[in-house]
Amino acid sequence: REPAPLERWPRRLSSGLGPMLSAPYDAVFLAMVIGQRGDLTPEVQQSFRASGTTHLLVVSGLNVSCIAIGVLWVWRTLLRLVRSWLPRPWCPGWRPTPIAAVLSIPLVLLYCSLVGWEVPATRAALMVGSYLLALMLQRTREPLHALVLAAALILVLEPAASRDIAFQLSFVAVASIFVVS
């Protein structure tokens, strides 16, 4: 069977990276950016384990939030630029941020589809989605509300996740960061 376009993208990225990065840096880059850990040598994996940085090889909230913030910033900048070119009567009450938030959601979903919907990426996509929804509706953004919403949606989709230690630790860690900050 012919691979779907989303399945071909990581292969294209992998093959295009060869001339730019030498081994093992290309494999580390692919693991960090798209979660493709198949090319990592056992030595590299052991180095990450020994240093306690294995979590860097998992697509997580950092990746998803960087994509979301970058895309939101680009859309908002473009929309502000377009609004500045248009005569005021053509765009009364037109607010670039809510529109940029709506336009950012599909690209965040596309990235998560490309990297696979593992629990950290799913949790991050749900939290980012709730943040973008708050921007879209011009509501205040409450991080703990977003965290609870993400946990509830993940548990609705996969109730067994509540017994997964990675799920528990990641939510406790994020909640702790919110409470302390």
SSE arrangement:
Layout: H1 5-17, H2 25-34, H3 42-51, H4 61-85, H5 96-115, H6 119-137, H7 143-157, H8 165-180
Characterization of the model:
By secondary structure, the chain is mainly alpha-helical. It is 71% helix and 0% strand. α4 runs parallel beside α6 and α5 packs antiparallel against α6. The radius of gyration is 19 Å and the shape is globular.
What brief labels describe this structure?
181 residues, single chain
SSE ordering: HHHHHHHH
Q: How many helices in DSSP terms?
A: 8
The parts where pLDDT drops under 50 for at least 5 residues are none
Termini separation? 50 Å
Q: Report mean pLDDT, rounded to a whole number.
A: 83
Oligomer: single chain
Q: Tell me, what's the shape?
A: globular
| Proportion of residues in β-strands | under 5%
Given helix and strand content, the structural type is: mainly alpha
Radius of gyration: 19 Å
In short:
The protein is mostly helical and 181 residues long. The protein has helices spanning 5-17, 25-34, 42-51, 61-85, 96-115, 119-137, 143-157, 165-180. α7 runs antiparallel to α8 (165-180).
